[in-house]
Task: structure prediction
Amino acid sequence: DGYSVVFVGRPNAGKSSLVNALLGTGRMIVSHEPGTTRDTVEEVVDLGGVAFVLTDTAGLRRTTSAAEREAISRTREKAAGADILVGVFDRSVALSDEDRQLLEELARRPSLVAVNKCDLPAHWSAPELKWPGAAAAIVETSARTGAGCDRLAACLVELVAGETAVQRETPAISRVRHRVALENATDRLRAAIELMHVHGDRAPELVAVELRAAITELAGITEPLDNEEVLDKIFSQFCIGK
Result:
């Protein structure tokens, strides 16, 4: 689990390359031919100790291709459910009506703007976007050289922290160590349940070992817990030794 971040923009703006730069891999297929990405592709990444699910999407444009229209429909569906949108704009080509429409959509959502391909001659500058959000939300990047990618990652972390934190309907397990601790605690609790199914109330000491381990894992992400107090409450519900 993690914060859902969906990269949106015109074809060939560099969305796949930016996602790859943040992942540090070549997971997303990259091509100079527009429309290469035809489906959404997700990868989990730890940025500054926070878990994000990065989603690469098909480019947004008018098209007569039925397959591409379906891919664009999936992009919009994925974007609608995202915690954060990253609008990717190619600075090496002129701004289009689609770019301006996307800016209006981004202004209504928790989002960042990546002014990409800053290593190439510029057709426009960041102030020309007239981005209604905070100036800090604009990051000049080059997926090819890596310029600005660290700043983009830092902005994502900043966006989910502090007073302007992204709000979710369900809590995100955003810290990687928290997720690991919860997974370990879940495994211990399952082991305790299995022991109870097998032995009933005849092996409370074995169940207690697993429960103590689960409590220890949870204590790493919550206030310190009194193991014995918790165990007393649990075992008070059993008729042990009868």
